[in-house]
Amino acid sequence: MAYTVKDYKTEVWVDWCPGCGDFGILNALQQALAALQIPPHKVAVFSGIGCSGKTPHYIGAYGIHTLHGRVLPTATGFKLANPEMTVIAVGGDGDGYGIGAGYFLAAGRRNVDLTYIVFNNGVYGLTKGQASPTLPKGVQTKSLPEPNLMEALNPIAVALGAGYTFIARGYAYDVRHLRDLIVAAIQHRGTALIDVLQPCPTYNNIYTREYYNARIYKLEETGYDPVVHNPEDEKEIVEKKAQALLKAYENGDRIPIGIFYRVERPTLEDELAARLPHWGKALADLEPIYRRDLTPLLDELS
Amino acid sequence: MPKRFVSWMIGGPQGSGINVAAETLAKAFSRGGLYVFANIEYHSNIMGKHSYYRIRVSEEPVHAPVDEVHLLAALDEETLFGDHHHNPEFPTHHGHVHEVVPGGGIIYDADLGDIRARLKRDDLRLYPVPYFEMIRRALEPFGKASEYRQYDIMRNTVALGATLAVLDYDFDLVAEVIREQFKGRRARLADLNIQALRVTYDYVHERFGNDFPWKVRRRERRADQILIRGVQAVAMGKLQAGLGLQTYYPISPATDESTYLESVQSQYNVVVIQTEDEISAINMAVGAAHAGARAATSTAGPGFALMPEGIGFAAITEAPGLVIFLYQRGGPSTGLPTRTEQADLGFALHPAHGEFPHLVIAPGDVVEAFYDSFEAFNWADRYQMPVIVLLDKYLATSYITVPRFDTRHLVIDRGVRYQPTGQPDGYLRHAVTESGISPWVVPGTEGVVFWTTTDEHNPKGHISEGVIHRVEQMDKRMRKLELAAREIPEGKKFTLHGPADAQVTLVGWGTTKGAILDAMEELAALNGLTFNFLQIRMMRPFPAEPVGAILRRARRVILIENNYSGQLGNLIREMTGFQIPHRVLKYDGRPFSVNEVVEGVRRALEDNEERIVMISSEAREVIPWPTR
Predict the structure, then answer these.
(1) CB hemisphere CA count around B571 (13 angstroms)
(2) Sheet holding B294-300, edge to edge
């Protein structure tokens, strides 16, 4: 039986503002799951707090709506305990690059096989439009009483430094392109970051649909090659990172979307499997651990 | 009857191997059919600061340290005379000579010269041993005598060899333990160390004779005894319980448990992850618990202070199988990183904002730590609420002879599981039930999906701010606590040690247990009164009714706690209305000695003091044993 997009929907009323970029991301994610034909009971969607935090409730799969900023550790623990699940983490830019910044870095270092989609709109929407870590300095969106005081963080650049093995940027209003990015991210073995430009029509009157529509172009249409073809070659890795970094800072009249960087590296699961000969299936499967025998350890103590 | 025992202490700078010497000796004692209680005091420092290790050895079980030292082995001058040379303005201690009993002995480096005048007492037996000369002689057969200065690390073995000679203990047992420590390529080091042990042993026998009044004799080896450290007991309880994933962020004194688990992870198929901080540690464990694994994190106070939101998360989403192990240390803030305290009881009882059910169990010793660590996971699964196991630094580093753990009666109970019907949408993760328990399911189960959220929610796990959903979910979560209170056997909640109708009732929790039990034997001999000890173990749900009944029936009640304010006393008052009139407290970062319990109880009974504060013998005169 083939799964359709409908199988990944729920009856829950979607309470995002009309015109919100979140709708595009939700549709793209559901379409990607259908395209990959992953059974709903083999998918777990995790979210942080904020408008994006509601996403799992709208998806017909295991949905765990966690704390502000802590979506990555929670999703990581879940994946390591139950590695046969496809794990997708979603969150906002404040969630991932602000309060969750430490976990954003550590997730790159760990390279657990999961996909992390950031709904990046430059504002804290649910608390009515405060500046987020990706809002540039000096910018004053309509709900800010004064212009923003701090420099913006560049998620792609930070992800390159943190060790992410798949780094992409999507655009919420190009659903088909975003769907393909999500498919590629899920298929990638390792932690995949998709930073999604997601206009907030209610609070961000500067980085709007019109703003992005006039500037966005696709990296893959320019002959850009994000892939490290020889992951053993440190020189190629650095070159591909440098190339991605230049593209990451291209945010004036032209803004690239697509895959910036991609490399195949051992995942944390690979490393664990090498250490734990019986690990790999769900730790929830208690059969082996029901039979644990402490005798060898106790013998050492006598 | 008060116990006969020998008390030995080794002191030296951190990095000098006092722990290896002490643990070698402890193991040799334990293998000799004797009972050992040993514990280390050390600084938050890698190298150089003063540390000391006490061993109490007896033919009967011993459970706690005592003030007095029969034989002191000093690796350095500071162990004898304190740290005035490092800290002339504010010395932290004045050495341990004053803790040695009259007629007791001191082993020290003869290179320190004549120390008699500096000792300020002439009732001790002195055993000056030329440490480096012993090392030089030990190296001779290996053709390395000229390199003796490079082998200064072997001074601990020299002190151990002298100890064996003075106590007249079995040389071969110690040599056997040393040989086991150096295996494979390091076997040559075993030969060197055993030679150093032998050279010193012979030197001391020859030079000082064999007249030390406190000797230790080996007995028949007992196969049913093990010598175990607190952190190992906890780790084994978790392994036996089927722990799937453990997270931790390095912190004293909890880390040793995680690294022990890591060292056996391939053997037992357990994932141990060092996280970027304790917030990640708790959330990763919550994620693993929701995935269906038994998950745990181990930390100390400062790490636990980062975990409240994760604990609330586990509670409102009803994560099954999550247990948090909190090793208390001296607080607040960074406090005393490597010292013990019982000051996080209040924190463990109120570990996050809002109202939610959780369990708090406080094992009293290493044995209870094993069984409680096991049982905690059954409760976490059955009641789908976070369980906190409250431990401390003292328990973590306690090294004690105990009966080998009996695992035959330990049964894993994963609680009420959902049986898929094949009908889609049939499953409600937060179904409202009479017991409050909503059957849980391992994600990945075919035909089932669920949602859950840190927001308040409806039975399906979707966000709801509806009045009825709120009240239903609050009530059903809290009903689980009532269920736990009904189902958990009384024997897990508290123990009344001693006669029910005793004239004096001592009240305590956690690791004061050993000192109180050992003190009770002394106290009975002291003045003919009868004593019992009410040990509270389950802090939430609190056994208010039976505890209140016992206390109201008791004639004189004395509280003993390793903290400033008497947190259990406050809890008892809150829960039962009973105000305990006497509080024996200690908050200098060290555990209660048996002497201190005896003295505290004496002052409460004879002097009728309400608040009695104990200071460790490190910083005061030894409390004489009234019964000796």
Answers:
(1) 27
(2) B271-274, B243-248, B294-300, B322-328, B387-392, B359-361, B538-540
Q: What is the pLDDT of residues A185-215, one digit of tens each?
A: 999 999 999 999 999 999 999 999 999 999 9
- Report if pTM > 0.80: yes
Residue range B220-274, pLDDT digits in tens: 999 999 999 999 999 999 999 999 999 999 999 999 999 999 999 999 999 999 9
Nearest to B340 by CA among B388, B291, B396, B382: B396
**Whole-number Cα distances in Å, B511 to A250, B113, B342, B391:** 61, 41, 9, 8
Residue that is written with structure tokens 């379409």 in the block: A31
Q: Which residues of A touch B308 (CB under 8 A)?
A: none
Least CB-CB distance to A292: which of B225, B242, B280?
B242
CA angle B594, B596, B602 (to 5 degrees): 110
Residue B184: predicted pLDDT? 86
As a dihedral over the C-alpha atoms of residue B139, residue B140, residue B143, residue B145, rounded to 10 degrees, the angle is: 70
> Which has the closest alpha carbon to B280: A71, A161, A283?
A71
Is B313 strand, coil or helix? helix
Q: What is the mean pLDDT of chain B?
A: 96
Query: What are the DSSP calls for B317-332, one per residue?
Result: HT-TTEEEEEEE-B-S
Q: How near does any CA of chain B get to the CA of A288, in Å? A: 9
Residues B502, B508, B510, B514, CA torsion sign: negative
pLDDT at B424: 67
Residue B620 confidence (pLDDT) above 90:
no
Q: Does A76 touch chain B (CB under 8 A)?
A: yes
Q: pLDDT tens, B345-372?
A: 999 999 999 999 999 999 999 999 999 9
A292: contact with B, CB 8 A cutoff: yes
Euclidean distance between CA atoms A137 and B441, whole angstroms: 47
Structural tokens at position B43: 């600084």
Mind giving me the DSSP string for B193-234?
HHHHHHHHHHHHHHHHTT--S---------TTEEEEEHHHHH
d(CA A71, CA A65): 8
pLDDT tens-digit readout, B291-330: 999 999 999 999 999 999 999 999 999 999 899 999 999 9
B100-109 vs B125-129, strand pairing mode: parallel
Count the neighbouring beta carbons within 10 Å of the beta carbon of residue B253. Answer: 25
C-alpha span between B538 and B359 (Å, rounded) = 8
Q: How many CB atoms lie within 10 A of CB A280?
A: 13
Average pLDDT over residues B478-482: 98
Contact present, B422 and A32 (Cβ < 8 Å): no
pLDDT in tens, A272-295: 999 987 776 656 666 666 778 999
Per CB-CB distance under 8 Å, the chain A contacts of B271 are 80-81, 272, 276, 279, 283
Report the distance separating Cα A236 and Cα A238, nearest Å.
5
Query: Which pLDDT does position B294 carry in this prediction?
Result: 94
Scanning the structure block, which residue is given the tokens 């009640």? B557
For residue B97, the SS3 value is helix
**Among candidates B614, B567, B150, B587, which has minimal Cα distance to B346?**
B567
Nearest to residue A107, comparing CAs of A182, A36, A165? A165
